[in-house]
Amino acid sequence: MKTICTTCPYCGVGCGVLANVDDAGTVKIKGHPTHPANLGRLCSKGSALGETFDPEGRLLAPQIGTRSAGWDEALDLVADRFSQTIAEHGPDSVAFYVSGQLLTEDYYVANKLMKGYIGSANIDTNSRLCMASTVAGHKRAFGTDTVPGVYEDLEEADLIVLVGSNLAWCHPVLYQRIVAAKKARPQMKVVNIDPRRTATCDIADLHLPLAPGSDVALFNRLLSEIHQQGCVDSAFVGAHVEGFEDALNAASGEDASATGLNHHDLTTFLNWWIGTEKTVTVFSQGVNQSQQGTDKVNAILNCHLATGRIGKPGCGPFSVTGQPNAMGGREVGGLANMLACHLDIENETHRDVVQGFWKSPTMPEQAGLKAVDLFEAVGRGEIKALWIMCTNPVVSLPDADKVKAAIEGCDFVVVSDLSADTDTAKIADVVLPATGWGEKDGTVTNSERMISRQRAILPPAGQARHDWDIMSDVGRRMGWADAFAYSAPADIFREYAELSGLASALNRDFDISGLQSLSDAEFEALEPTRWPITANAPKGSQRMFADGQFFTPSSRGRMLAVHQNATTKAYGETLRLNTGRIRDQWHTMTRTAKSPRLSTHMAEPYLEIHPDDAKNNGIRDADLVRVQSAEGEAVLRALITDRVQKGVPFAPIHWTSEYASDGRISTVVPSVTDPVSGQPDSKAARVTVS
Ligand code: SF4
C-alpha cells in the first residue's frame, strides 16, 4: 500500500486528495486533512474518484483514421501536416484548442509551441466558456487578472453574496466551508442571487430570484444606493480608485425594475450589503456566461472599489472558477489574447520579453481567435490543421452541430485525449492517447491562487503519454529541438517560474520566481502555496491589494461605467433556456460516468420546466421533451418544478451522444458571445418545447 498526495481534477476549489493504492492497483480516496482548500473534506465527485479508473473506453494507442499506429508514425504525421500547412498557408492557418483540465506544464508548452515557435496566437481554451468574462473584468478594473481574496475570507465574512453560483452543487467544498462557518457564527448572513431556486438556497437568509441577465441593473442600483446612503469610502477612492464619477453617473441612471425583484427583497439586500463591512461577493457562471458578462463582473467590482472592501480580511469580490486549472491556464497564457505570466500579447514590451526569454524565432503581434471565432474560422476553411487537447467541443461548445460540421470539414484534425470515443475523437484524423488524472504529474492553480501538485498514482494506461511530452516531441520534430528539450514537468515549471520574475518586473501580479531554483526533489515535494511566491515571500502570499496598489498604469483600481444592455425578459411564446452543471457529473462525463453511484443522482439529461410552461405545452412530468431552437434540438426528460421561473427552463450540459443520443444541449445554444471577453452566453437560448 502506498499513499500519494494529489489534487482533485474537477472544480476550481482544488481540494487536496490522499490516494491509497494497493498492490493490485485499487485506489481508495480520502480528503487531504491538511490541504488548505478542503482540510479533509471532499464532495461526492471527489470522493468517487477511485471508481473512475475503469479502463473501458480508454484510448491505449495512437490511431490514424481507424487503425492503430506507432507513436513515431503518428507524431511524424502531425508534425509534417502542421509544418506543410504553415509553409503553404501561413501560421494563422493552424490552431490549438486546449482545456482547463490540462496541467500548467502542459499549457505552458502548448503556448510556447503555438505563440513562440509556430508564430500564431490561434490557441484558445475551453476556459473561454467558463472564466473569460472574469478575466476581462479583472483586467479592466485591476490592470491584471487578479483574484484578490482567499478562501478564509468566506469564513470571516459577515455577509456572503452569491451571484450566479449554485455553490452547493458546483463548488461543494466551499459551500461546506460556508455552512460550517455559519453554524459557528449564526449572525453570518448569506444572500443567493439566482433566477433559479437551487440547492444553494438551503443556506440563504435571502434568495433574490432576479430576472435572468439583470445583474448589471442590480449592482448599478447598489452602487447608486451606496452613494445615496453616504457609504462611499472617500479616503480609499481618493487615494486608490479612478473612474468613480463616470461609474456612478452610469449607475444612477439605471432602472432597477429590470431585475424584477420586489421592493422588500431589493431593499433588504441593499441595506445588508451597505451595512456590512465584511462582505464577500462570490460570482460564477451566471455572471460569466452572458453576452454582457464582462460588464456584470465590473458592476460587482465597482461596488467593492467604491467601498474599499477589497484586500482586507473577510471582504472582497471573489470569482470561483469552474475547472481544476482554469486559473493555471489563465496564468500561463492559455487564452488567445494572453502571453504567459499575465503578459499581454498586444503589448510590444511584453512580447519582446517573452520572445527574448524563449529565444523564439517569431511572435504574433495580435490576439488570436477566441473559441467561438476559432471554430467559425475552421468552418470557413481558414484553419486547415487543428489540434484539440483534453476537451470535447462537439459536446461543449454552443451551436454544437455546426462545430461538429466544421471539424468534419477541416483538412487535418488531431485529438489528444484519454477516451477513445468522445464525440470529438470520433471525427478526428489522428487520435493520440494522453494520460489522465491519476497518471499526470505537474501543477494546478485553484480559485484562490493556490498552486498544488497533481501527482501520478498509477502508471500511464497502454501507450498513453503526457500532453507536455507529446507536444514537446512534435515541437522537436518540427525543428525546434532545443526549445522543447524537456524531460520532466519540473524542467518546465522552473522555466515558467523564471519567466514570471521577468513579468513581475513589468508590473505584473503573477510572480512565482521564488520557485525557479527548485530541485527535482523539491518540486516533487512542493506543498500547496499561494502566489505571489518570491524570494521575499518563499512561502507564498495572502490576499492581494492589501496596500491599495493595483496593476494599472496609475496604480489605481478602475471603476467602469456600465449599463444594463442585455435583455432581461423571458421570451414570450418561446422559452429562455438556461444551462449549467449538476452535482454529480463533470463536463462531458468521460470520468464521472464510470462511477455507478454518481450516475444514480441524475440518470438522464432533463429539462426543469415551470408548471405553467409545461401545461401550456402539453407536457407531463417525465415525458420526453423535444427542445428546439434555430440551431438544433435535443430530447430531454421533463422535470416539472417551480424551482425555475416561468418562461426560463433549465437543462444540464453534461450528456454526450454516447450516453444519450439526443442529449447534447449545446446543439440548441446559439453562439452569441460577450463582445469584450468572447465568452458565449450559455444561458439565454430561445427555444420551443414539445
Ligand atoms: Fe473536487 Fe471540487 Fe469536489 Fe473539491 S469541491 S472534491 S475540487 S469537485
UniProtKB/TrEMBL annotation:
A single GO molecular function term of this UniProt record: oxidoreductase activity
Residue span(s) of domain 4Fe-4S Mo/W bis-MGD-type: 1-57
Cofactors demanded by this protein: [4Fe-4S] cluster; Mo-bis(molybdopterin guanine dinucleotide)
Swiss-Prot/TrEMBL GO biological process terms: cellular respiration; nitrate assimilation
EC number annotated for this UniProt entry: 1.7.99.4
Protein keywords: 4Fe-4S, Iron, Iron-sulfur, Metal-binding, Molybdenum, Nitrate assimilation, Oxidoreductase
EC category: oxidoreductase
GO terms for cellular component: membrane; oxidoreductase complex
Family assignment from sequence similarity: Belongs to the prokaryotic molybdopterin-containing oxidoreductase family. NasA/NapA/NarB subfamily.
Name assigned to this protein: Nitrate reductase
Biological source species: Shimia thalassica
Entire-sequence positions represented here: 1 to 690 of 874
